[in-house]
Structure formats: C-alpha cells, structure tokens
Amino acid sequence: MPNPATMIDLRSDVKSQPTPAMRKAMAEAVVGDDAAGEDPTVAELERRAAEITGKQAAVFVTSGTQGNLVALLSLTRPGEEMIADEKAHLIHYEGGGCTRIAGLLPRLLPCRQGCLEPGEVAKAISKGSTVRGRTGVVVMENTHNLAGGVAVAPERLRAVAEVAWEAGVRVHLDGARIFNAAVALGQPVADFTRWCDTVTFCFSKSLGAPAGSVVCGDAEVIEQARAHRRMLGGAMRQAGHLAAAALVALDTMVERLAEDHRHARQIAETLATLPGVEIDLTLVQTNMVFFHLRREDISPEQFTEAMRQRGILISGTEPRQGYFRLVTHHNIDDAATQMVCEAFRETLGVAGC
Predict the structure, then answer these.
(1) How far apart, in whole angstroms, are the C-alpha atoms of residue 257 and residue 287?
(2) pLDDT band at 6 (very low <50, low <70, confident <90, very high)
(3) pTM here?
(4) Who contacts 179 (Cβ-Cβ below 8 Å, separation ≥6)?
(5) pLDDT score, position 319
(6) 20-252 has which fold?
C-alpha cells in the first residue's frame, strides 16, 4: 500500500503543499481584525494585487468561488442575464451561486479555444424588455480549465470586452490561474486584466498558498464587494496569517510556473506515444493535461487504481468514460515527472517509448 505522504498527486494544483517560506511567514505574520479593516498584512496583499492587475482596489476572499460570486453581486442586479461560455468553471463547479444567490440567468455560448466569440456575444446581448432581462455581465475565464487549460491571449479578451462595453455591459474575468496565462504567453498580468471590470485570481492553485483568492476592480465596486463578502460569511478576523503565505506566493511562485508547464508538456508527450490514448497536444499550454483513455484491456477504474498502486493519484472530468485531467504544480519536480511518465508506460503496457 503506497504511503499517502509520498504520493505524487496530479489531481489538481490545489493539492500542493505550502512551502517552508510560506509556513514561516504565516507563523510570523503581523495580524489584526480584517473584518474591521485592521489587518496590515491583508492590506498589503490587497495593495499588491491591485497593483499587479492594474486596478484601483482589491479585496481578499476565502476562495475563487466566493470571489466570483461577490464580483457578480457587485456588478449586476437580480433578474439580469449573464453571458458565459458553456464550459465555464462558475457554471459547472461553483454550486450554482450565480443563479441561486446573485439571481442571474446564464446565457451560455460556445467557446473557441477557451474564449467567447465577439460576434456571438454581440448577438446574445439583451437590452431588456418586459419578457427578458437585460444583460448585466459577460464572464470570461483565463486560463480556461475545461477547454484544456489553454491560455487566452489579451487581444482575444479585448475583442469580447469591447463588444460588451460598447453595449454598456460589465465584464468579469475568472482569472483563477491568470499567472499561468501570463507566464505561458510572456506578458504581464495587467495586459490581460485591463480588459475586464473585475478579476479574481487564486492563491491556492498554481501559486501554492494554503487558501484565499482576491477580487480586483475599481474602488466603488470593491467597496460593494466587501459588503457582499460580509453577507456571504467571508469577512475574516486575523486573516493576515493566510495573506502572509499569499504574499510569499506572489514573490516566489510566479516565474517558476514555467517549470510546471514544462512538466505538463513532458507528461503529455509521453501519453501521446501510448496506444489507446487520445490527446491534443496543441491544448497543452500551461499546467494541465487532458486526455481520453480508450482501451478495451483496461478500464478507467483499473487504470486509476494501477496508477495509485504506483504512488500516483489521478482523476478526471469524466473518469468513468475515460476522460482524465492531470495538473502539475510545485510539488511535482523533475524526478516526480519522470516517475509519472514511467508509470504511464508501465501501466499501459508499452516500455521504452
């Protein structure tokens, strides 16, 4: 039986562990009552986040799901429509908060390589009538999870944002892994975030901190976001312990994301050599690898268990149908990547590829 403490966990980058520097910063953090605006470490994190994204202000929240929801609550009114793509994370994995709490009607459109098409957005925008709500917000995602972890270029975000703004519609960017997009495309984060009114990004995914996300936008919207955070139970007290780890993440974890991307590519190229594995290498742009296992001699459940017995944890978007997602992170180093590649070759019955 593999030791859980030594398992190589590819199920998500949220499975990564805080670094020693993060743990030290958390222990030594100067903290206060953040719910009352008195935590200096949280204040510094919010200042840094606003500066990085080119926004006026920011608010620290417990999670990306909460961040997306408080942004939507701050940008819209109940009964309005929300344009998003049919694979959006906030549609599939955030508990339906956009409808159940924000009262928005999702109008879902197809996406091409992780981004909405400007022409389709223009046609979908509603000015509102007695039978249909007006469009209150357009939501984009970068990197885009279910589109393969692809990095969406700023010019594509711009094309959609300009259509929305021309119609008087706000734009929100779910940038949970925006730093991966920035590193993959070699551009600063602000080049992406200038094409939205609000943006969330996460500290506990590829950046490796234990918890927390941030919402950035103009000062008025962020003031509303603070009120909505309170309503949702997200106003914390001595949150500086978490913010301290997030500050270390911003200082130490961004440039090294290129290593995660390289490891993902190495794993993907190994999988592409194996029989019964369908994979589109053009979509492997950041730290995610999506593939479809189509083998009669090994079921998805057997495959998952065989990898677990080799000390590697994997999961999928639809694992019972053989659709898997692997996510690299800072705990997956060169040696672990090599072990993963060897395990795939052994498990799928092909050696020396």
Answers:
(1) 8
(2) confident
(3) 0.96
(4) 189, 201, 206, 207, 254, 257
(5) 73
(6) Aspartate Aminotransferase; domain 2 (3.40.640)
DSSP-assigned letter for residue 283: G
Instruction: State the number of CA atoms in the 13 A half-sphere of 153 facing the CB.
Output: 6
51-69: per-residue pLDDT in tens?
Answer: 999 999 999 999 999 999 9
Residue 259's SS3 state is helix
- Quick one: pLDDT at residue 326? 98
- Every domain of the chain and the residues it spans: 4-15+255-347, 20-252
C-alpha closest to that of 53 among 214, 211, 209: 214
Rounded Cα distance, 55 and 12, in Å = 29
The residues pairing with 216 across neighbouring beta strands, listed in sequence order, are 58, 199
Are both 4-15+255-347 and 20-252 of the same fold? no
CATH number of 4-15+255-347: 3.90.1150.10
- For the record, the structure tokens of 335 come out as 């040696």
Residue 338, burial from CB neighbour count under 10 angstroms (0-12, 13-18, 19+): middle
Alpha helices in 84-153 (DSSP H): 89-92, 97-100, 118-124
**Cα–Cα distance between 176 and 195 in angstroms, integer?**
16
